[in-house]
Inverse folding.
């Protein structure tokens, strides 16, 4: 979907930081943009987010988790993304379907076709035009944030899980070179920001 841009990568790689910097850049330069995030991003979807991430929910089945992400996504698309795109805005979303493919498919080991099919049902035609993939290994990314957030159920899965997530992202980046914009995220915050802005200019988004 034209003007729908997602930001993806492992936990701690700098997605939220970069999204905020990009937001400041866009506001300063007068772009008509909306910044949002998943899971959550709207009132009902944020409630689903709280269920997904709650460390008390250790007994949640992998498939339940996958459906909750898809449910939150449907609501968030309905409340935030679709209306903004219809108004001609550019929408940037911190995480989207490729998080589900990487975390629920590669990480949890749910059959990838199942996860893809579920998400295709959830999003319809709203596939991202471009995916900004912040590329950094989970070892390096976790170092940045000083280890896993104890209040986040997903971040506290064992480390091999996060390695599989990273492998999943790389798989999709290689399989979709026209959609994925791979950004080396190993540099400073400013360096990565400049790379993102340059890539978005080159793609004609900014
Ligand atoms: N390029 C960078 N170099 C060093 N530290 C960074 C960089 N980008 C982000 N960080 C730090 O890493 C941590 C995780 O960043 P965050 O944006 O929350 O990651 P994510 O949203 O991808 O999980 C934060 O403490 C942030 O300040
Ligand atoms: Mg974040």
């Amino acid at each position: 979907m034209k003007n729908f841009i997602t930001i993806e990568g492992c936990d701690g790689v700098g997605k939220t930081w970069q999204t905020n910097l990009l937001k400041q850049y866009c506001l300063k330069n007068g772009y008509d943009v909306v910044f949002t995030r998943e899971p959550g991003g709207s009132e009902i979807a944020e409630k689903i987010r709280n269920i997904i991430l709650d460390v008390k929910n250790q007994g949640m089945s992998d498939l339940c988790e996958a459906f909750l992400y898809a449910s939150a996504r449907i609501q968030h698309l309905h409340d935030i993304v679709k209306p903004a795109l219809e108004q001609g805005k550019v929408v940037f979303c911190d995480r989207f379907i490729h998080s589900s493919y990487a975390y629920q498919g590669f990480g949890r080991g749910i059959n990838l076709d199942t996860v893809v099919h579920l998400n295709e049902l959830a999003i319809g035609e709203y596939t991202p035009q471009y995916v900004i993939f912040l590329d950094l290994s989970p070892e390096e990314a976790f170092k940045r944030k000083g280890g896993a957030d104890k209040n986040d159920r997903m971040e506290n899965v064992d480390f091999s899980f996060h390695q599989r997530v990273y492998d999943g992202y790389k798989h999709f980046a290689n399989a979709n070179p026209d959609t994925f914009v791979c950004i080396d995220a190993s540099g400073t915050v400013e360096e990565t920001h400049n790379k993102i802005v340059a890539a978005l200019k080159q793609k004609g988004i900014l």
Q: What stands out?
A: The domain at 4-202 is CATH 3.40.50.300 (Rossmann fold). The radius of gyration is 16 Å. The longest strand covers residues 130-135. The pocket of magnesium ion (ligand 2) is lined by residues 15-16, 94 (CB under 6 Å).
